[in-house]
């Protein structure tokens, strides 16, 4: 294996180790975010865009070269395979071209996977930090709200106590005033009773007069009936 393919295979093995490490479940995104913010990684990430593009360029060239060799050794003319040694040599070159093709393809693919995993872990860690800050802020707001409600309740209770005490003070009546009020109510009750008795007497008098008028009306009606009968007999 030539130097470039040995280097590419070693890089592929390193990529596999990095991907497996990034996918370990017991390492939280917060730890990865702390690691990514370290000085060493920060110094490397300053030119990470150029490094990433440069490695993609190198891997792309090797991948294209592996495709060229794969097509070259896959279409060997049967006339060239005159001896068993030449046939074995041709199959060996075909195998190497296929091996280089898979190495270059997987190395290029895993390079994109690593970049995507790092960006996702950073985004998840950032969202976790934001959610933690939002939760703490919500807890603080809830705590302040409870304190405000408790203070409001205590203010209402104090106001009610003040109003109750002031109400008790305003409801206090002097005994002399109380006796005067009772006497006034008694006089009003006596006056009302007298008024009722007077109205009752007037009612009785009115009833008696009404009865008298009814009797007189009946007498007059009887006289009119008698006179009417007498006139009818005279006419006959």
UniProtKB/TrEMBL annotation:
Residues 182-230 form a coiled coil. Gene3D superfamilies: 1.20.5.110. Keywords: Coiled coil, Endoplasmic reticulum, ER-Golgi transport, Membrane, Protein transport, Transmembrane, Transmembrane helix, Transport. Residues 1-133 form the BAP29/BAP31 transmembrane domain. InterPro entries: BAP29/BAP31, BAP29/BAP31_N. The chain crosses the membrane at residues 6-28, 40-64, 101-118. It is found in: Endoplasmic reticulum membrane; Membrane. It is a multi-pass membrane protein. Residues 160-169 have a biased composition (Polar residues). May play a role in anterograde transport of membrane proteins from the endoplasmic reticulum to the Golgi. This is Endoplasmic reticulum transmembrane protein.
């Amino acid at each position: 294996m030539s130097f470039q393919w040995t280097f590419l295979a070693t890089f592929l093995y390193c990529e596999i180790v990095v991907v497996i490490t990034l996918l370990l479940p017991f390492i939280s995104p917060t730890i990865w975010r702390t690691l990514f913010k370290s000085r060493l990684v920060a110094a490397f990430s300053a030119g990470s865009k150029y490094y990433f593009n440069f490695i993609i360029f190198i891997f792309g060239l090797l991948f294209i070269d592996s495709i060229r060799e794969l097509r070259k050794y896959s279409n060997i003319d049967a006339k060239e395979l005159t001896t068993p040694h030449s046939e074995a040599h041709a199959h060996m070159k075909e195998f190497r071209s296929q091996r280089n093709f898979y190495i270059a393809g997987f190395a290029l693919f895993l390079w994109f996977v690593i970049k995507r995993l790092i960006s996702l872990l950073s985004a998840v860690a950032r969202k976790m930090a934001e959610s933690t800050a939002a939760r703490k802020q919500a807890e603080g707001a809830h705590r302040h709200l409870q304190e405000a409600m408790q203070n409001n309740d205590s203010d209402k209770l104090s106001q009610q106590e003040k109003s109750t005490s002031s109400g008790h003070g305003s409801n206090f009546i002097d005994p002399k005033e109380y006796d005067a009020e009772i006497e006034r109510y008694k006089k009003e009750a006596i006056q009302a009773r007298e008024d009722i008795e007077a109205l009752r007497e007037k009612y009785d008098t009115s009833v008696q007069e009404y009865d008298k008028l009814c009797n007189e009306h009946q007498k007059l009606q009887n006289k009119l009936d008698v006179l009417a009968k007498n006139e009818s007999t005279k006419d006959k």
